Each structure stands twice: as structure tokens, then as C-alpha cells.
Amino acid sequence: MTIGRQILYFLAAVAVCGVGFLILDLTLMNMQGLDLIFKN
Amino acid sequence: MLRKIASIGFFFAVCAAVVLALGGELFVAKAIAEEAASAAGGYGPAPVLTEADYPKVSGMNGRLVVWVVAQLHLWFAAFVLAVPIFVFIIEAIGMRTRDKRYDDMAYEFIKVSITAYSLTAILGGLLLFALIIFYPHLFGYLSVIFKESMIYYALLFFAESAVLYLYYYGWHWLQGDIRKWIHLTLGLLLNAVGTTLMLLANAWLTFMMSPAGVDPAGVFSGDSWAAIHNFLWNPINIHRFVANIAYGGSIVGAYAAFKFLTAQNAQEKAHYDWMGYNANFIAICALLPLPFAGYYLAAEIYAYSQQMGITLMGGIFAWLFIIQAVLIGALFLSANYYLWCGMGRSDGAKRYFKFIKYIAIVLIGAFLVWFTPHTLVLTNAELKALGGPHHSILGPLGIMPAKNTAVNLMIMFTFLSFLFYRRSNKQATVSWERVGNILQVALFTAGIANILFLGIYHGYFTNTVYKVAASIPQVLTTFVVIVGSLVLDSFIYRGAKDVGPLHWGRIPDRAQYALFLLAVAFTWLMGLMGYIRSGIRQHWHVVDIMRDASADAYTPTLGYAANVVSIAAIIFLTLVIFVFWIAQVSSSKSLPAGYWKE
Questions:
Q1: In terms of C-beta density within 10 A (0-12 exposed, 13-18 middle, 19 or more buried), how is residue A10 classed?
Q2: pLDDT for B342
Q3: CA-CA 20 to 30 A from B530: which of B297, B445, B560, B583?
Q4: Please, are residues B451 and B401 in contact by the beta-carbon 8 Å criterion?
Q5: Of B201-210, B463-472, B550-559, the least confident
């Protein structure tokens, strides 16, 4: 496997995991009655 | 086959019986308490005391005696409650794998702890005498409220002793198909009884912090269940249960380290190296979730009483939490160092050596953030020179979001050390190994980025509510990364070949000192935290209900408290060395020639 392909797989996996974690964050903050982004 | 099914069925039937019995007991206790409550009467308010109500025994400071004896009792109690938990698991693993080494190790762990049971009971008796002698009115008040649980507590020791003796002395007798299941069931019962004892005792001390079932004057309603099930009962139960396991693992690890260093041959060295690894593994497994159990306890203390919460972490005891941070950092570094040294057992570990320095850099960086204080202890001149109580650059690292970020990273990287250790002797055979590794790295990268985002954004760009709330997704991110990695790893290494046999015993002596450090640091840490938990009651015996009117009703200086904890820790560790020595002596024989008549 070339270096380029490895980097592509890595970035794709980070993106998928990142979205997953953001959904987790959103769910857990909502369960506590809060949004993910702070509004004054 | 039928006998095997019958014995397994017996085991699960007893499990169900234990659960039902405990649940039923609580239900019955609740019913009795409610009936008593409805016919309540005859309970007076909490006594209002003066200094004259505290008996003096010449040359003895009552508070010091109760403090040291209670702490010694608790250290031993934590040890003897923890050992049956992992002995039960190790025995079950032995039964599953039919590998006798596990059975022998489980037996050796119980053997080491037997003397500790006696010492726990002796110290418990001494504590009871000390409380009756030095704090008779407090003990009288508590024993009125907790009379049922105190009687059950005393009676449960018969069950504890009976089960323990059968379990230990019957170890070699109860071997084989059905008997082994009976033996395992005895182990389960030992755990059930021990845990119940802990839950009952926890109720008494948490009542002193968060009283329930009493009115503001301290008049008991008659509802014992309400008094037991007070606000802080479950947070302490969870924290103590997990902490006991970590602590017990560290103490048996110290035993294994001592035996390794004094081993007479390579076989003994290999055996105690393996034992030390298992003990360290148990200690790390319980150490990883422990900060969260502690955070939950602190959060519940805050939720119950802001005053207690602020005294705990924003007032006089805050500096002791910096000492706690130093000790926990030492624990993590020590546990990781032992794992890194242990990698040398495998010939395939050389592939991973180059990564260790990066793990060390992250751990040390996180450790530095972990123990950075927020509000400094300063003289007026220093305050003026600094321009305030906080350092302008490092001060922001002193607040909880930074600490939570640091500890989550420490936990993740400790897990990474373990992952490398696990992989070091394996050669994957799956075709998608490279892709699997990329996925693992991506999972870690995304997890770390998420933890940093939550810690930095919610920690420094939002308000307090967000700061506290963001700690939950941080914890679960760490949990997801750990579980996800383990699952991925198990698939990547399915059908993997071993690089070679593990060379048990091939580990430098200095790694054993890492195990000693674990045991000593844990002991000192528990002493410190025990003092803090008790001390936040300040001038109350029972918070807001019964005031402490003794001559010692003041918070001592931090230096004094640290000295008391240190001296108590030295006494405890001396007693532990005695416990280890007795375990050794019991299996040695002298053959004096010519002494006995022929």
C-alpha cells in the first residue's frame, strides 16, 4: 500500500471517528439540557 | 456432562439466591423501618455537647487515636475486601482455561491476605473501643439510629469468618468437577458478605456527612433505611469498591515484587514475575476508571453542600488535592514504567520501543498540568509581586477542565502502553493488518482531538455549567477509544502467531521498585483522601445536626495532617511486611536434628 493511500485511509477514518465523537458530544450535552456550542 | 451442568446450575442458583437475599434483606429492612417510622417516638434530638463531655485518657489525644486507628482499619479492610474479588476472577479463569497456574496464584493471594483479616478485625475492635472511650455521646447517638445495621454488621462477621475459613482451608480439598464449582460459590459468598459489610459501614460515615432520616434538631424519624440510603452513600460505595480493587492489586503486587527480588532460582523468579504482572494488570484495570468515580463523589459532595464542596477543593483542603495529583501522577508513571520494563520479556517488543518516549512525553506533560495549582498560597508581598492569587500564564491550567483533559489523556496513553505490551509478542496474520492499524491510529487521533476540543472550548470559552457538563463526553470518549481499540485489536490479532515464548523472569530489578512505589503511593494517597473526606465536616460530628465541642474541633495545619498520615502509613506498611512474613513462615519447616526423641 502506498504512503498516499495510507494517508487517505487515515484521514477518512479520522473524519468518520470525528463525526461519531461529535454526535456523542451533542447527545450527552443535550441530555444535560445544553447545546454543544455555548450561547450566552 | 450432567454433573457439570448440575454444578454450573448450582453456582448460578446461588448467585441468584445471593442477589435475591440481598435485595430481599434491603426490602425487609425498608419495610421494618417504615413500620417503625410510623410508630416513631421516643427519639430525642442530637446531644448538645461541651468540652467536658469528651473523656480524657492521660497522654492520649482522642482525635489522633481515632484518626490513626480508623485509617489503619480502613487500609486493611480495603485490602481484605479487594483480594476475594480478584481471587474469584482468577479462580474462574483457571477453571475456564484448566491452567493450574491461575488456581495456584489465586490460592497464594488468599494465603497472603489471611493474616490481614485478623488485623482488620483487631483494628476494628480497637476503633470501636476508641470511639466509645473518646466520643461516647457521638457513638451513643449513632448507635441509636443505626442499631439494626450495627447488629447485622456484627453478626455478618460469623458468616464472613465461616465462609473465609472454608474457602481458604478447603482450597485443596474442594478440587475437581462439582467441588470446584462449590469452592467458586464460596468465593462468591465471601465477596457478597464482604461487600455487605462495607456498604453497612459506609452508611455510618456518610450519615455523618449527609445526614438523612433525621429532622434539623437531629431527632430520628425511625426510618433506618432513610438513614442508610443517605445522599453520599452510593457515591462512596462506588468509589470505595473500585478503589479497593486497585489498592488490593497494588499490595499483592508489592508482595510479588518482594518475592521476585528474594527468589532463589529462575523458576521462582519467573513465577513471581508473572504474579507481579497480573497484580499490576488488576491495579491498572481498576485505576483507569477511578478518577471518574472520585470526580462523581466530589460532584455529589458539591451537590449536597456547596460549603463542603468549596472547602474540599476551593478552600483549605485544595492544596492537599495538589498533593493528590502528584501521587496519582506517580501512580500512572510507575504503572506505565512497569509495563515498559515488562515488554523486555518478549523478543518481539523491540518494534515498539521507539514509541515509548512519546508516551512518556505525553504522560509527563499531562502530569505537569494535573498538578498545576490554581490559587497559590502566598504572603502579601508575593501577592503584590504576582499581581493576584493566580499565575498569569499557568493559572488557567489550575482549573478542572485542564485537569479533566490531562487525566483523560493519561488514561488513554496508559491504555496505549498496555496495548503495546499486549502486541509485543504477537505477529498478526490477517491480510488487512495495515488498514487495521490505520483505523486504530485514527480512533486515537479523533479521540484525543475530541478531548482537547471539549477541554479547551468548554473549559475556557463557556460558563461553569458547560465546564462541568463537558467532563461527561470527555470520559465517554476515553471509554469509546479503549473499548473500540480492544475490539479492533482482537480482530487484527485473531489467529496471530507468537513471536516466541515469553521469558518470564527477564525483567530488570528496578521494575519491582515500581511495584513497591505503587503500593506505597496508593497507601499514602488513601490516607490523605480519608483525612480530607473526614475533615470537610470541620466542626461537625454530624453536619448541621451535631456539633463537635471537643478541644480538637479545629482543622489542623496541612503539615500536621501530612505527618499524621505519613506515620500511620509507616505503621501500616510495617504491619503489611509482618503479614507477608507470616505467609512465608507458614510454609517453611525446620528439622532440628536430635531435638525430638526417637
A1: middle
A2: 95
A3: B583
A4: no
A5: B463-472
Confidence (pTM): 0.89
Inter-chain CB proximity B477 and A24 less than 8 Å:
yes
Give B512: exposed, middle or buried? Use CB within 10 Å, 0-12, 13-18, 19+: buried
Average pLDDT of the residues in B209-230: 95
Contact flag B477-A6 (C-beta cutoff 8 Å)? no
Contacts of A25 in chain B (CB under 8 A): 450, 454, 473
- Among A18, A28, A29, the residue with its CB nearest the CB of B446 is A18
Q: What is the pLDDT of residue B94?
A: 95
Q: Which residues does chain B have within 8 Å of residue A16's beta carbon, measured at their own beta carbons?
A: 442
CB contacts, 8 Å: B449 with chain A = 14, 18
Q: Which amino acid is at B299?
A: A
CB environment B169-178: b (16+ within 10 A), e (fewer): eebeebeeee
Q: Judged by CB atoms within 8 Å, which residues 1-40 of A form the interface with B?
A: 1, 6, 9-10, 13-14, 16-18, 20-22, 24-25, 28-29, 32, 34, 38
Contact B339, B418 (CB under 8 A): yes
pLDDT at B585: 86
Average pLDDT, chain B: 91
∠ CA(B121), CA(B548), CA(B538), 5° rounding? 85
Residue B559 banded pLDDT, cuts 50, 70, 90: very high
Average pLDDT over residues B22-34: 56
**Average pLDDT of span B491-519:** 94
* A33 Rama sector, left if φ>0, alpha if ψ -120 to 50, beta otherwise: left
Pick the residue from chain A with its C-alpha nearest to B458: A38
Hey, are the CB atoms on A9 and B477 less than 8 Å from each other?
A: no
Note the helical H segments in B170-232.
177-209, 224-228
Is the model's pLDDT at B41 over the cut of 70? no
Residue B578 makes CB contacts below 8 A (sequence gap 6+) with B115
Instruction: Specify the 3-state DSSP secondary structure of B426.
Output: strand
Residue B308 pLDDT more than 80? yes
Strand-pair category, B497-498 with B426-427: antiparallel
